[in-house]
Write a structure and sequence with these properties.
Layout: H1 3-32, H2 41-55, H3 63-105, H4 116-136, H5 144-155, H6 159-178, H7 180-202, E1 207-213, H8 217-228, E2 233-238, E3 245-253, H9 255-268, E4 273-279
Helix pairs in contact: 1-3, 1-4, 2-3, 2-6, 4-7, 5-6, 6-7, 8-9
Length: 288
């Protein structure tokens, strides 16, 4: 792998992380922070601390600088887990999102007019989309994001689910400060954010994967090749009850092609077994 390729790849990821950081900051500054929605993460903790300082007449530390300070402690874990390149991407996300949050706070309008439902929906969607871009490029914004990525990498738990679990404690801490109603709306923002995050990571288009088991596998295969214009793979399967060997067809299709496959298989062999699942990505290689 050439140095130029690595340099271009890192530059592309860095730009994506910067864009995601700005979008994430917009969600915080326009919807969540000014409306008392501590929707998890280090930014949620910082929002709680800022409000407590404000109520007690203490200097209010900027949310972004609080997050940056907290993340300094976690950088060692990032470096040990992913190496220098991963730490560099993470550092860009941490610094960029923190600076963007503080720099844009004075220039962006506070949206929603106090409508907590509106703020929670758009705050969650905006922050989730920004985080998805950052995570997709190998970075993060620190805090519970780091914890979630480490847990997801080691256990296989979906990243959005890990983030949701890690952020629940932050929402609980916000109850004595902002009240139960704000905490409930913060939960809405957090849930929507994780769903949008997973969508950005997994891709907006989902294909279908089908396994077809039939005694008439040959005409079904030919129909897939000719009518759908799709390739398929024969896998050797053995019936658990009968012990009979027979080919099982494996094919990747779009959602509309899936409906065509069902009708086609039904016409050729009404007794065929068709197992369908969703996939988020398929990489095709030409071995010819």
């Amino acid at each position: 792998m050439s140095f130029n390729y690595l340099s271009k790849s890192f530059s592309r990821d860095a730009v994506t992380i910067l864009v995601g950081s700005i979008i994430f900051a917009v969600g915080l500054d326009c919807f969540e922070i000014p409306n008392g929605l501590a929707a998890g993460g280090a930014s949620g903790l910082a929002t709680i601390v800022a409000e407590l300082c404000r109520r007690n007449g203490l200097p209010v530390p900027p949310v972004g600088m609080q997050v940056l300070t907290l993340n300094a402690v976690l950088m060692l874990a990032v470096f040990r887990e992913g190496g220098l390149r991963y730490a560099a991407r993470s550092g860009i996300g941490m610094v960029a999102s923190a600076l963007a949050t503080d720099l844009l706070a004075g220039s962006l309008p506070v949206l929603g007019n106090g409508d907590l439902l509106l703020c929670s929906v758009w705050g969650g969607v905006t922050c989730g989309f920004g985080l998805g871009l950052i995570f997709r490029s190998g970075g993060n914004t620190g805090g519970t994001d780091i914890v979630a990525q480490l847990v997801s990498k080691r256990t296989g738990i979906p990243l959005g689910t890990a983030s949701l679990a890690a952020d629940m404690s932050v929402v609980a801490l916000s109850v004595p400060v902002f009240g139960i109603e704000n905490a409930l709306y913060a939960s809405v923002a957090m849930y929507l954010g994780t769903r949008v995050l997973d969508t950005v990571l997994d891709g907006f288009n989902t294909n279908r994967i089908a396994y077809v088991i039939s005694d008439l596998h040959e005409p079904i295969k030919q129909a897939i090749l000719s009518e759908l214009g799709r390739g398929c793979t024969e896998l050797l399967a053995r019936g658990g009850y009968t012990g009979v060997n027979r080919p099982m067809l494996f094919v990747v299709l779009t959602r509309t092609e899936m409906a065509h496959l069902r009708r086609m298989v039904q016409e050729i062999d009404p007794r065929a077994t068709v197992v369908v699942g969703k996939i988020h990505e398929a990489v095709y290689n030409d071995f010819t």
